[in-house]
Amino acid sequence: MKKSLLILSALFLGISASAQKVEFDQYTLDNGLHVILHQDKSAPVVVTSVMYHVGAKDENPERTGFAHFFEHLLFEGTKNIERGEWFKLVTANGGQNNANTSDDRTYYYEVFPSNNLELALWMESERLMHPVINQIGVDTQNEVVKEEKRLRVDNQPYGQIFSEVKKNLFAKHPYRWSPIGSMEHLDAATLDEFLAFNKKFYIPNNAVLVVAGDIDKEQAKTWIQQYFGTIPKGQKIARTHAVEDPITTQINAEFEDPNIQLPMVIEAFRTPSMKTREARVLDMISTILSTGKSSRLYKKVVDDKKMALEIFAANVAQEDYGIYFIAGIPMQGYSSDDLVREIDEEVEKLQTKLISERDYQKLQNIFEKQYVDENANIEGLAHNLATYYLLYGDVNLINSEIDIYRSITREEIREVAKKYLNKNQRLILDYIPEKQANN
Fold this sequence. Notes:
The chain is an alpha+beta fold and 439 residues long. It has helices at 2-19, 66-73, 86-92, 117-129, 135-154, 161-169, 183-188, 191-201, 217-228, 277-290, 296-304, 336-352, 357-374, 378-392, 397-407, 410-420, and strands spanning 25-28, 34-39, 45-52, 96-101, 106-113, 207-213, 251-257, 264-272, 308-316, 321-330, 426-433. The chain has a 6-stranded mixed sheet, sandwiched between helices. Strands 7-11-8-10-9 form a 5-stranded mixed sheet, sandwiched between helices. The termini are far apart.
């Protein structure tokens, strides 16, 4: 049976490796805009996306929330697209669009029928070259962002977990605040500050344009040159990397959430950049511990011992540092300390014992499936192409990163767990219901 499993695993690896190779062309315009083209004639659809190398970590500590604010603001309108007309123009031409912001980057994209590629390129060039940034737009989007924060953070059960984890894990690095930022900072900002932020970061030499789908590559290149080639190059951005001191003593913190009735306990660790091999090993560790109902922690504390209502872990990979965390909600009759003991026991097993060969093959199969799934649709593929260029510096990782995961050994899993998941390197956050004041 074990031999059969190994044979099937090897067969699956070989098939997916050959079937999933992503072909692409890339080049850079004279103004520094990097361009990636991927042709896929399987459906008459095209994705046009622009990723800017600006996120929450690029903000002034006294003006947090700017990058996320611009995610909204740059839909307000341009010199040639009247205010309020952006979304109407997209939907009227059979398209859809969206944007999102992280600590490291901001991403805009449109999905159109392929005969509207020229329209999509023109619209994104307009956003880059001719955005209208005025007080009306700033005031409007200020209210939009405040409502989003109320809905997704302030009034969302467990909505501030990640913000609290970041605040306690980082003392120097701008990862210590969340992309939604501070509403007080946005209220205090002047129009000139918004204009300066746009001028500094939303420039062609700080971005990558990806066009993926049913395209004629030569025609696409012509339109890209026509609409983006004349946009002036911006000033080179000077970036600084704040270096955190190592965590050598357990950090204990508490946060009261008025929106919850059940407490949650979180263990969190500061981990290396997503560009490192160790970050990929931590991805695998997270999968072993908590991905799916057969994972170690879920099976142990949710199914077998019925100590937790829910438990999960994640390795949040980011450009400068990562965050690895494990979170659980104790069942009635059990405490947060009980869950921490169970979590620690499973982590210690990873630190002292090799996972079985069978578990290792299962792990490899999970990552093979993730690799296939992530590149299975044109939207995900376009996002991955942009990310690998802008944040990793290597577009071909879209094909080769799976080889890194394949080469990770059982011994590496043990050693990385031993290196990064120690009690004296962690945060223990008690995320609890709001305490009632005594009368």
